[in-house]
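Shape matters. Shown next:

___
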Amino acid sequence: MIYLHKILPLLFSPLAIAYVVIVYGTVTSRKKVVIATVAALYLLSTPVASKYLFGLIEGPPFRQDPATMPNADAIVVLSGMLVGVPSAKGIVYEWSDPDRFFAGIELFKLAKSPKLIFTGGKLPWNSQTETEGAVLTGVAESMGIPSAHILLTDDVKNTEEEAKAVRKLLSGPNPSVLLVTSAFHMQRSVRLFESQHLKVIPYPVDFHVEIRDTTPMDFLPNADSLALTSLALREQIGRTFYWLKSRI
């Protein structure tokens, strides 16, 4: 199932759809179809379009003050921020998105909860033996966070499994969690965690849409903007999938 979750968004990415439509238009000699597809791909590759579309997924770019956040039974930091790379000493880990980790640490140091939970994220094709949560636990301990206050879930492959694994660690009918994840990923995460009878207090980080003036450069296509558009579409596919699943 995890392979289906990862492959489907790729099949419906703007680039994949454009390839199929262009091939169809070329084989059937429909030049208008090809031209329209190229024009659409151009538009989706511009910063002005990608940031607008991603903003719809991400929501208002508003970083909350951690000091004003309410207390909770646990702080939950979702996986998805490390990349394992080879070195002379074996696999080492580099940050792809450190915001989640450091936001969780900050909330803990502000005494927002006595429990800091990392999820054991590990995909089947990853060669490293440690889960992401295990690595982050070691980093947190090296920063002075007492090991007695850190919890680690079982191995998980996606957000739905993270929600179920976190629920297993918390007792009570409706425990509260300060949920830390990327802003674009928050809406789907909240729904999945609430489905496990958890009271969720969102703390979104890792915002991708910055506030700045529009310039002529925003109308020129680039690979980063297309990737941002693709990420927005992938997240929407994920939301739709779990929305449909909840109604079956």
Q: What stands out?
A: Residues 223-245 form the longest helix (23 residues).
